[in-house]
Amino acid sequence: MKAIYTAHATATMGRAGHVESDDGTLSLDLAMPREMGGNGGGTNPEQLFAAGYAACFHSALQFVAGHDKTDVSGSKVTGHVSIGENDAGPGFKLAVVLDVDVPSLSQDKAEKLAEQTHQVCPYSNATRGNIDVELNVKGGAA
């Protein structure tokens, strides 16, 4: 792969530590979620992954729609990232649900666009075959 852009971020102290990008535009303290025995009250890696995947998928949706000159105004993508025990062995596993809302398209067209997007999105390509990713698609036009 010929890289177009490379992001750099450093984490210290794990889930209860700090993450920062090399250019300083991202600088966050992290907190373990209460559900995992932490104090909560801060960002965690799953939230960051959900935000990144949702933003990337939405951008890919706009890219795919632009090729067909399809109106996706008012669209949005919400990412849900779950962490749990890995049933296949020790450790943990992630699962993702993406809620894809495209009110300018019919349900059928929105579903087709989401499936095309799922083939283009870099996050989808990176996770395919590694974690479960479910698309919940909602169209709105008749």
Produce the secondary structure layout.
Elements: E1 9-12, E2 18-21, E3 27-29, H1 45-67, E4 76-85, E5 92-102, H2 107-120, H3 122-127, E6 132-139
Parallel strand pairs: 5-6
Antiparallel strand pairs: 1-2, 2-3, 4-5
Helix pairs in contact: 1-2
Explain this structure to me?
The strands form two sheets. The protein has a three-stranded antiparallel beta sheet with strand order 1-2-3, with no helix packed on it. Strands 4-5-6 form a three-stranded mixed beta sheet. The chain has three helices and six strands, in the order βββαββααβ. The model has no long low-confidence stretch (mean pLDDT 96). The protein folds into two domains: 1-43, Single Sheet (N-terminal domain of TfIIb); 45-139, 2-Layer Sandwich (GMP Synthetase, Chain A, domain 3), CATH 3.30.300. With 142 residues, the chain is α+β, with helices and mostly antiparallel strands. The chain has helices at 45-67, 107-120, 122-127; strands at residues 9-12, 18-21, 27-29, 76-85, 92-102, 132-139. The chain is globular and about 50 Å long. Helices cover 30% and strands 28% of the residues. Strand 4 (76-85) and strand 5 (92-102) form a beta hairpin. The protein starts with 8 loop residues before the first strand and ends with a strand.
Quick recap of the structure?
The chain has 142 residues and is an alpha+beta fold. Helix content is 30%, strand content 28%.
